[in-house]
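Q: Convert this sequence to structure tokens.
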Amino acid sequence: MGTVSEAPAQGESAMRPDQDAFGKEMLDHLEKGEGFEAIERDDGYMDLSGGPAPYFAPYPKWPPHQRKAMRFVCGRVLDVGCGAGRAALHLQGKGHEVVGIDASPLAVEVCRRRGVRDARVVPIERVRPELGCFDTVVMLGNNFGLFGGFDKARRLLARFRRITVAGARIVAETVDPYNTDNPAHLAYHERNRTRGRMGGQIRIRVRYKEYVGNWFDYLFVSREELVSILDGTGWRLRRTIDTDGPPYIAVIDRID
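A:
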């Protein structure tokens, strides 16, 4: 998961060093082989993710649905929420020109140190035509979530049309939030609905050691909700790549 933070117009992050919890755990894993990721939700729910290791995993160790998704990548690639650079490095190795972006300065540093040729501190909100034109937008590792909410997703999808070529594609991973029987999650869905939010629109921040990230919205959607978001944006769902659980990948085609 990439983090989200507002940044000045030139693309440099406004994130203070002590707020870059996500990037610090990436850096510690790179340098020391350690690290963890604590996720705090705005209702007080706390959880630990799988830690930083999956962000560094080589392609043969990726889950099958993520490996299958790479077959749909073509041309010049924008890797949104590039994290530690695993997708960018794999696609570079396949001959693609890749631009990796992340809101975390330390994560971008990790990408560069690992060999990502073009990694930039750019939050998704700051995607601009200055990045160039792309054939594929990759949002691996549940990074469809960076769209944040229904209205924001539609605004950003319109912006993605302006930076992509005819016939372009978005390959985005998400989680069906309703594929759960956890009472805390079910209660959170209902809480969201009473506040006029989508059920899977969570508000979270990342914590690591003394580092505390900014609060940000992260969006999990069902397949039906995803289709509703895409309606009228100039993008359509081509297919999904499913798993036995909540995660799935959406292959989204630009309508021309």
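Residues 1-13 have pLDDT under 50 and may be disordered.
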